[in-house]
Amino acid sequence: MDTFGVSRTVLREALRTLTSKGLIESRPRVGTRVRPKNAWNLLDVDVLDWYSRVAEPMAFALKLQEMREMIEPHAAGLAAASHTDETFDALATAHAAMVAARNVDEWVRADLQFHLSVLTACSNELLIPLGTLIERTLEAQLRLNAKRAEVFNASLAEHTAVFEAIRERNAVAARAAMAGLLGVTRGRIEG
């Protein structure tokens, strides 16, 4: 309380928040302790963001990539099979912004919107929140990948293949195109 100049009420609320996120536990006569990392709720937006800032960067990038490889190809297939006009329009807008991007910042914003739009277009309300969950960490990964590429928009052709397969409602091609795009991403992370 002295270090941060806060009241007991503020400290209690902070401890309650950390407890609800699985980071700490309080027990009578034992005190407050940090829980082991495997007990943390990494599916909490804040915890994931905090963890991404202190985790070993390469290890964290690969873990995020593994998660994306498990989810995004299937989501692209679902998007191809079940997108609505509205969700496809959002995807088309994101793709057009990627095509028009003139610098890394514009590219990263459009790239992030593209991937979030694929999740939304899959019409599975259980997958859509995953975009919100990983949005901050994904943005950082997309920025790093754009800077590692020869040119910031080096993966435009791969994104276009995903976009076209979804537009054509070809689920098999959409899954394959997204897997290919993520393969390029993995190559940049590992390279």
Strand order of the largest sheet: 1-2
User: DSSP strand (E) fraction?
Assistant: under 5%
Principal-axis shape? elongated
Report the uncertain regions.
none
Helix content: over 70%
The CATH architecture assignment of the largest domain turns out to be Up-down Bundle
What's the total helix number?
8
Explained architecture:
It is built from 8 helices and 2 strands; from the N terminus they run αββααααααα. It is mostly helical. It has 2 domains: 8-39, no CATH class; 45-190, GntR ligand-binding domain-like (Four Helix Bundle (Hemerythrin (Met), subunit A)), CATH 1.20.120. It has a two-stranded antiparallel ribbon. β1 and β2 (31-34) form a beta hairpin. α2 runs parallel beside α6 and α3 (57-82) packs across α5. The longest helix is centred in the middle third of the chain and has 26 residues, at 57-82. The model has no long low-confidence stretch (mean pLDDT 90).
Describe the secondary structure blueprint for this structure.
Elements: H1 8-20, E1 24-27, E2 31-34, H2 45-54, H3 57-82, H4 85-100, H5 104-121, H6 128-148, H7 156-167, H8 171-190
